[in-house]
Write a structure and sequence with these properties.
The chain is an alpha/beta fold and about 260 residues long. It has one domain: Undecaprenyl pyrophosphate synthetase, CATH 3.40.1180. The protein has eight helices and six strands; from the N terminus they run H-E-H-H-E-H-E-H-E-H-H-E-E-H. It has a six-stranded parallel β-sheet with strand order 3-4-2-1-5-6, with helices on both faces. It is globular, with a radius of gyration of 19 Å. It starts with a helix and ends with a helix. Bound molecules: ligand V0D. Ligand V0D binds next to helix 3, strand 2, helix 4, helix 5 and strand 4.
């Protein structure tokens, strides 16, 4: 059967946004989110794209709180891709200031919540002030033992895969491993997500039904949840809806 748009989005209209209906025993361990639609949200309102990113940051904060309150183990945001450098300079400059802003407003709360903040991607290519903010997040939360919060910044999955291949070749040439040792585990240990569980659930906002170079190896068995809502309109209730839909699919899968 061919699914129309209605069928693809908010699959089956299953569930509403009630957190009470979430089963705490079968939560997805790792949720990864592509926060798309900030620019379009702003444009619809006649605002500069940067206003959309500011609104998007508020939804990031709200989603972090909701995930942490629920007991999610790992939450990952795709904040800035290697392709985002092609955007207008003014917009890139603004995006690079967001971690600095976020540091001022949110670091203390993340510390209090025992959240461990990590980066996926090459932060060395970002401006110094951005790097400093990112490093401060990592340093001030590195001993925390609660939820792991990843920001993929200057991240691209194919780049990550290329580096992994180079690392494996180095190890083979150095005699640390032989060709026949190369396994899924050997690969996973050489990706930026080393030590993290693969995403159980991937959420993408803004009606785009693509993966766009995000965690290609890691999403082999992930469930996907798409919404037409633009990221600055993405509410806690939608987040809960995505988790309930994930749980509904897992139950069905379990009963087969
Ligand atoms: C823009 C929507 C938080 C996605 C949210 C540099 C696109 C707002 C951070 C952030 C961005 C990153 C690291 C960190 C603390 C906060 C962020 C970027 C974009 C790209 F340690 N929001 N946010 N970083 N946006």
């Amino acid at each position: 059967m061919r699914l129309g748009l209605k069928g693809l989005f908010n699959q089956r209209n299953q569930g509403n946004g009630f957190v009470e209906e979430i089963d705490k025993q079968t939560l997805p361990k790792h949720i990864a989110i592509i926060t798309d639609g900030n620019g379009r949200w702003a444009k619809k309102r006649g605002l500069p794209r940067t206003a959309g990113h500011a609104a998007g940051m508020r939804r990031v904060r709200e989603t972090i709180r909701a995930a942490n309150d629920l007991g999610i183990e790992v939450l990952t945001f795709y904040s800035f891709s290697t392709e985002n450098w092609k955007r207008p300079k003014e917009e890139v400059d603004y995006l690079m200031k967001l971690p600095v802003e976020f540091l001022k407003t949110d670091l203390q709360e993340l510390v209090d919540r025992n959240v461990k903040v990590q980066m996926l991607g090459e932060k060395r290519q970002t401006p110094n002030f951005t790097q400093e903010a990112l490093t401060e997040f990592e340093d001030k939360t590195k001993h925390n033992t609660g939820m792991i919060l990843n920001f993929a910044i200057n991240y691209g999955s194919r780049d990550e895969i290329l580096s992994m291949i180079q690392k494996i070749i180095d190890d083979v040439e150095l005699g640390n491993i032989s060709k026949s040792d190369i396994s899924e585990q050997i690969v996973s240990e050489r990706l930026l997500t080393k030590g993290l569980p693969d995403p159980d659930l991937v959420i993408r906002s803004s009606g785009e039904i693509r993966i766009s170079n995000f965690l290609l190896w890691q999403i082999a068995y992930s469930e996907f949840w798409f919404t037409e809502a633009l990221w600055p309109d993405f509410s806690k209730e939608m987040f809960f809806q995505a988790i309930k839909e994930y749980q509904r699919r897992s139950r069905r899968y379990g009963s087969l």
